[in-house]
Amino acid sequence: MAFPYPTITLEEHFLADAVIDFYAANSRLDPYKETILLQRCRENLVEVGDVRLKSMKDNQVSMQVLSHAPNSLALDLDTCIKVNNTLAQTVRDRPGSFAGFATLPMVQPEAADKELRRCVNELKFLGALIDNNCNGRFYDDPYYWPVFEAAQELDVPIYLHPSYNDQTKSLMFDGNYPDAIAQTLSMYAWGWHSENALHFIRLFAAGVFDKFPRLKIILGHMGEMIPFQLDRIIRVTSHQWPMVGVKPERQLRQVWDENIWITTSGMFAIAPMATVLRQCKPDRILYSVDYPFTRNEWGLQFLKDLKDDGLVTDEVLEGIAYKNAEKLLGVKVSPLA
């Protein structure tokens, strides 16, 4: 059975030559060349032409919002400018098929602020995707908040994406098994998602959403585990945190409902989706694939399964497929013929 709607996908990656050069200049290994279980993705990461477009067409992806793959070290401003200019040309070459999220030099927050403004105002990007940490530091430190201020002023979302963290890998995930297993545990098998969830809670605890009440944050992978813990976290933050003087003006449920969007990227199972649908407002759920780390055909089959399961109405499913993204990002795709 054909799926009846076009789709927009928001967490779709590429690998830029400028970043490969940056790794080499800093005597760091390129993780997409040296990490055994990521080598399989490298060819499709660097390809942003006919192969990618055919996969999109075959699997009803009308538009990919492209962003750079996670980085194993913080990028400088010059590298980010090169990445963003390359992406802007890719979008210009394929208007309507591709859009862009900016790559930002979070190690230089003031420069990241200016680069986000350039990317939105001049390159017409739709927001930014930033790595979950900057050389092991998280963004609850006000040092990084110029980026959030810029995003609020520009009215564009920040996609907080899991990324490498050497500091937590050795402490939490190295064990009595091959290092390749430790790598996967520290990344996409567990660590990336639990750390990204914690990062969001840290932002809330630090008062980011009181300081920037209109800030839009996107979390991938069905909310990075948070929907399954949300009620417990709300209970703790609302009843216990005030005892030590942490009293956010906007409580966690309000922030979750008003400031957070989540995507399905890489998570294509009905059971967790049932929890997401109970914990999130329907217009805050967005379809994504996480190409090329996962496959467009897996995502399309998930949407078909979701329709067949009867868990959502046609109106909700159409929103997840593309209409919610159109509203958030200010884009339009054509209905299926």
Q: Uncertain spans, ≥5 residues at pLDDT below 50?
A: none
Round the mean pLDDT to the nearest integer and report it: 94
What is the CATH class? Alpha Beta
Radius of gyration: 19 Å
Helix tally? 17
Q: What is the name of the CATH topology? A: TIM Barrel
Q: Categorize the overall geometry.
A: globular
Summarize the entry for a quick read.
The protein has 337 residues and is of the alpha/beta class. The protein has 17 helices and 8 strands.
What this model shows, in words?
With 337 residues, this protein is of the alpha/beta class. The chain has a single domain, classed as Metal-dependent hydrolases (TIM Barrel, Alpha-Beta Barrel), CATH 3.20.20. It contains 17 helices and 8 strands. It has helices spanning 17-25, 31-34, 42-46, 50-58, 77-93, 109-121, 145-154, 166-173, 179-186, 191-205, 208-211, 221-224, 226-239, 252-259, 270-279, 296-309, 314-329, and strands at residues 7-14, 61-68, 98-100, 128-131, 158-161, 217-219, 260-263, 285-286. The strands form 2 sheets. A 5-stranded parallel sheet has the order 4-5-6-7-8. Strands 1-2-3 form a 3-stranded parallel sheet. The radius of gyration is 19 Å and the shape is globular. Keywords: Decarboxylase, Lyase. GO terms for molecular function: carboxy-lyase activity; hydrolase activity. Residues 75-330 form the Amidohydrolase-related domain. InterPro entries: ACMSD, Amidohydro-rel, Metal_Hydrolase. It comes from Exophiala bonariae.
